[in-house]
Design goal:
Elements (H helix, E strand, L loop, with lengths): L4 H17 L4 E6 L5 H15 L4 E6 H12 L12 H11 L59 H25 L1
Parallel strand pairs: 1-2
Length: 181
């Protein structure tokens, strides 16, 4: 299911604006979908600008704050993490393994089309966001199986380790916001 970006941006912005109106002074937008990475920044700005003074809005994707930890756990080469990849498939194996059909896993590593393009989710260097109509961005085509990366190396144990690392890093961000900002 998908909705147009302007509808999503307006909807999430209005939720945040309502929270600010009702007295919330720290609002966190945690992104879990790569396709929303650019939009979530705009939403955060919309909320902050309409909230007036004294309101902090933070927006980030979980892989941006845990990329180093994810990279230390992974076994796929660069390009192995994108969509239905080692990370996402391992997380799903850990959280809901009955939904995963590993026999259908297909390796489809992402490739860098420009030196400014991000190669995969664990690439912490800030790059240009490239989009191509039809989905998948410039760096990969999800093909018939919806994979960009390498789900063939996913395991339930890696999923547990990824999950704990992500939760730990997101928790650190939330602690910083709560205690220091």
């Amino acid at each position: 299911m998908s909705i147009e970006f302007d509808v999503w941006i307006k909807f999430v912005s209005q939720i945040g604006q309502s929270l600010a109106k009702h007295g919330f002074r720290k609002i966190v937008l945690l992104n879990g979908h790569g396709g929303n990475a650019a939009a979530i920044d705009l939403v955060a700005q919309n909320i902050a600008e309409s909230a007036g003074k004294g309101c902090l809005v933070a927006a980030f994707s979980y892989w941006d704050v845990s990329g180093e930890q994810i990279d230390s756990i992974r076994t796929s080469a660069q390009g192995g993490m994108g969509h239905s990849c080692e990370l996402e498939t391992s997380l799903q194996l850990y959280l809901r393994d009955g939904l995963v059909k590993m026999e259908r896993a297909v390796k489809n590593p992402r490739t860098r089309s420009s030196r400014f393009d991000s190669l995969d989710l664990a690439d912490n260097k800030k790059h240009v966001l490239f989009y191509r109509s039809g989905g998948g961005g410039v760096a990969g085509d999800p093909g018939e199986f919806g994979t960009m990366g390498d789900p063939t190396v996913a395991t339930k144990e890696k999923g547990r380790r990824f999950f704990e690392a992500i939760v730990g890093q997101v928790s650190e961000v939330l602690r910083d916001i709560s205690e220091k900002m």
